[in-house]
Amino acid sequence: MALGAALFTVACGGSGEQTESGDPTGAPRTATGTPGPVGAVVAEGTHGTDGADDTHVPAPPEPPVFDPATTPCPAEAAVCVDIDGRRSWLQQDGAVTLGPVPISSGRPGEDTPRGTFHTVRKVKDEVSYVFDGDAMPNSVYFTGNGHALHGGDVNEESHGCVHLPEDVAAHYFDTLGIGETVVVY
Q: 58 pairs with which residues across the strands?
């Protein structure tokens, strides 16, 4: 039987029974057992129409394992920033130590620079003096022109910095030293 033909809306009865509507004959049907949520979709099986046991549902496929070797970020980089992929990660000798994590970067006209840089300065509780005193927690600067990795809203474009989730920015700040290689691509 096609799955579409076996779909019914389940409503929970007060007695611990489930009544199903949508029977092709229009007759109400009753199934005993543990009540399911209102609006649940019933597939074929003991709670469906063919009597087979539906207790085993295959797990969804595993997402592909992230392999930094498939990216342009070299193994000697401590920080990798993939602007187009909106992600960043920390690594040591090419092995990922944190991430990838979501990021946002500079808006059009205030693009985050791409290339190989080195961390030049760290400021725990930074405030932007250029952009209305915006908070820039756990700033790790990678250019001499004010570009930093720091905590910020990853759903909002920046003025050229790389926004990281707040907890991740704290980890980057605590982990990275001055002179570490940052690759932005």
A: none
Predicted confidence (pLDDT) at residue 162 exceeds the cutoff of 50: yes
Domain-wise residue ranges, the chain: 3-41, 68-184
Contact 154, 96 (CB under 8 A): no
pLDDT digits (tens, 9 = 90+) for 97-130: 999 999 999 999 999 999 999 999 999 999 887 7
Which residue numbers are catalytic?
150, 161
- Distance (Å, rounded) from C-alpha 84 to C-alpha 140? 21
d(CA 29, CA 141): 66
Fold for 68-184, please state it.
L,D-transpeptidase catalytic domain-like (2.40.440)
Give me the residues paired with residue 12 across strands.
18
